[in-house]
Fold:
Amino acid sequence: DAKTTQPTSMDCAEGRAANLPCNHSTISGNEYVYWYRQIHSQGPQYIIHGLKNNETNEMASLIITEDRKSSTLILPHATLRDTAVYYCIVRVPGDYGQNFVFGPGTRLSVLP
Amino acid sequence: EPEVTQTPSHQVTQMGQEVILRCVPISNHLYFYWYRQILGQKVEFLVSFYNNEISEKSEIFDDQFSVERPDGSNFTLKIRSTKLEDSAMYFCATVGADTQYFGPGTRLTVL
Structure:
């Protein structure tokens, strides 16, 4: 089973920041937080990952709380093309035999 | 940017027939995975593969399924005798820089 919980769905106005929360209260010290998204039935797309420091890349920012029990993915200026299901996954990186366990994710709808 | 590719994009088959789904991993990636997603459901892990052998498999990956890397480039998933419930999207993934990269998927429809 997935070790994370996320809201089932969220709406966001186009051009506004989308803040997607994730709870991972049982995260282990060596587990990273990964975010992926899936647009329609396409393959999951990697967004960002981090351990404990906040991370930013060209797609998004990841804010992880100090106790690492929760995190927030931020899409700073959401567009209609960001409408997708967003998955928060915890995993030990470099453990290549370990698969990703997907939960149901959050369905983000960006509204015009 | 290198990508994982999969063929075919859509496969229609009759129940009981064998199907082979193909994946071309990102070059120099060594770990490969297959996942499936039944319409409207979660993405589910099937199997991981490294150094020409299975590393891990889920309970979904029964004797009807097999994987191989026949020619050093393609990575294939074979379903020996398809069932209606095998209808799903099948995704190949490879690992690089601690991250899994997924292919676009093959939609398998079993009639």
Q: What stands out?
A: Chain A touches chain B at residues 32, 34, 36, 38, 41-46, 49, 87, 93-94, 96-104 (CB under 8 Å). DSSP finds no helices and nine strands in chain A. The mean pLDDT of chain A is 92. The CA atoms of residues 36 and 47 of chain A lie 5 Å apart.
